[in-house]
Amino acid sequence: MLVLAEHLWDRMVAHCLAGLPMEACGLIAGVEDGSGTRVTDVYPTANAANSARVYTVEPLDLLKADRAAEAAGVAVLGVWHSHTHTPAYPSPTDIAQAPDPAWHYVLVSLSDVEPVMRSYRIVDGRASEEPVALAACRDTAVQW
Amino acid sequence: MPVEVRLPNILRPLAGGEPVVKAEGATLREVFDDLVSRYPGLEASLFTPEREMHRHLNVFLNDDDVRYLGRLDAKVSESDTVTLMPAVAGGAD
Q1: Domain boundaries, chain A
Q2: Can you tell me the ipTM of this complex?
Q3: DSSP SS3 for B26
Q4: Is pLDDT at A141 greater than 80 in this prediction?
């Protein structure tokens, strides 16, 4: 399960909307614990592909995010990107290019009125959806 | 002339599980060759069959992307840090 604070979700959506009509992307950082992955920060990145249909995380943004996560005592654990005109399901391109089976792959679809988020693990060319829990910062069950 | 090479999670099992390893070389190609001599499992992740830099790999020399420093011909010196990261890409297509 992926646990994500609402204010981080808001930041992800804002970056996706700001990127229109192109796909937007970013990285998520956090910690793994017994119940799943708690996202501690999200890092909006440039889409080096500058495309409405594909994305490439700008390499230097990837380096900066990795260093920022390390400095915060966490790790980059996944990537998110928008689908501007299709549902929040991994495309064959997403599956073929997934770099790390341990990562979380979060898709944000902007094809409907309200943004839709789904998260997946992609292992050996197969995507499996995982639950996502949105948590308010004041939620005492989630330590930020 | 050893340099420090930082590995992403995905490559660590191919290098004894270490997050940071040492390698020798005056150019990035020499550093990669030395890495592969120590950890042969890294060959396919670092090089294409033509022994060019793998296209799904991001390589940084300190704070710079080596694509702008001559790629495998980039000059490396002792105090440098080489950071390897997977290319992160996809899309709706």
Answers
A1: 2-135
A2: 0.86
A3: coil
A4: no
The rounded distance, in Å, linking the Cα atoms of B89 and B56 is 9
Amino acid at A139: D
Q: Of A22, A10, A29, which is closest to residue A77 (Cα–Cα)?
A: A29
* Segments of chain B scoring below 70 in pLDDT: 1
Q: How far is it between the farthest Cα atoms of chain A?
A: 40
In CATH, the architecture of B2-86 is Roll (3.10)
Q: Which residue of A lies nearest to B9 if distances are taken between CA atoms? A: A100
Q: Does residue A63 carry a pLDDT above 70?
A: yes
Q: Are A136 and A8 in contact (CB under 8 A)?
A: no
pLDDT score of A74: 93
> Cβ–Cβ of B90/A91 closer than 8 Å?
yes
Contact B86 A99 (CB under 8 A): yes
Is the CB of B87 less than 8 angstroms away from the CB of A51?
no
CB of A12 within 8 Å of a chain B CB? The answer is: no
- Phi, psi for A8 (deg, rounded to 5): -75, -40
- Residue window 28-57, chain A: list those with CB within 8 Å of chain B: 49, 51, 53-57
At residue B21, the 3 state secondary structure works out as strand
Residues in A 74-133 with any Cβ partner in B closer than 8 A:
75, 79, 81, 83-86, 90-91, 93-94, 97-102, 105
Q: According to CATH, what is the number of the domain A2-135? A: 3.40.140.10
